[in-house]
Structure formats: structure tokens, C-alpha cells
Design goal:
With 168 residues, the chain is mainly alpha-helical. The protein contains four helices and no strands.
Length: 168
């Protein structure tokens, strides 16, 4: 169960903590997908999820470094109960035979969810520094969507085909 979050009360530390939680949730979900469906070949759905997990982890680390530089070890006031599926794909979204194209489409939809989250949050933020951070994060999601679209366009022919059941 997620807790209703009042964006108007967030200060910069809270906003950074929230963003770190969003990235951590997405990172863990993508890692779960990799374990769930397993790797079969170089450019398969799991490899795409693995790349997305690394990207989410990297972004979370950057946000954490920023928080650490500004606020040190001050305790967090925002918990993971405040978020759910902000950027993380839905648990039941992947399938064992998912095509690389479908994996990228799932990742693209997740980046769009994160964009919408920050775009909607901006409407309720009162603190200027939080507004600037959320606008920056929203714009980063736009860049992430562009990168995913470019990767989709670079997929080799046949990447839209789900794997065949090897027992069939």
C-alpha cells in the first residue's frame, strides 16, 4: 500500500530521497525480470532489462551522491511506502519468450510513467529547488525515452518476434 504523498511539503532533501527511491525500485524490478526470464542470447529481453537495471542503478547512485554532498547523513523522512511503480515496470509485464522489441517497449512505457510522475508532481511543488529538481528529472526521462527509441530503431530484423517454445 502506498502512502499519499504531499508534494507541496517536500524540501530538496525529501525530493532527492524520493527520486532515489524511484530509481531503486526500478533497478530492483529490472533485476528481478532478468532473474525471472533468464538470458538466452546476446540481445534478448533479459539483456535489455539488465541494461535498464544498470542505468537505473547509475542514476540512483548519482542522485545519492548529490544528496550526500548536500545533506550528509541526515536521516530520510520519505519512505518507499510513498511510491509504487513510479518508474518500475509492472511485475507481470515480462514473459519468458518476450522479444527484444517488446522489452524495449516495456522500458519505454516505464520511462513515460516516470516522466508523467515528475510532470504531475511539479504542479504541486512549492519549493523552487524541488521544482527545479523535478523538472530536471522529468527532462532526463525525456532523454531516456529518446535513447530507448534509438536503441529500438537499431535492433536487427526479427527482433519483434517472441521466442519459440523450444519444446514445441
Amino acid at each position: 500500500m502506498s502512502v499519499k504523498l504531499d508534494f507541496s511539503t517536500l524540501n530538496l532533501m525529501d525530493a532527492l530521497d524520493l527520486a532515489i527511491l524511484v530509481e531503486a525500485e526500478a533497478h530492483e524490478r529490472y533485476k528481478f525480470f532478468v532473474e525471472q526470464i533468464g538470458r538466452r542470447y546476446d540481445v534478448d529481453a533479459a539483456s535489455i532489462f539488465e541494461t535498464m537495471a544498470m542505468n537505473e542503478e547509475k542514476h540512483g547512485r548519482q542522485l545519492n551522491d548529490r544528496r550526500q554532498a548536500l545533506f550528509g547523513d541526515k536521516p530520510k523522512r520519505v519512505s518507499s511506502a510513498a511510491i509504487f511503480d513510479v518508474e518500475a515496470p509492472e511485475f507481470g509485464a515480462p514473459s519468458w519468450n518476450m522479444s527484444p522489441l517488446k522489452a524495449f517497449q516495456l522500458a519505454l512505457a516505464s520511462e513515460e510513467k516516470a516522466y508523467q510522475f515528475y510532470d504531475e508532481a511539479i504542479k504541486h511543488v512549492k519549493d523552487t529547488t524541488v521544482l527545479e529538481l523535478f523538472a530536471e528529472l522529468r527532462d532526463e526521462e525525456t532523454e531516456h525515452k529518446r535513447l530507448i527509441k534509438n536503441a529500438m530503431e537499431a535492433l536487427p530484423p526479427g527482433s519483434d518476434k517472441d521466442l519459440e517454445d523450444e519444446d514445441a
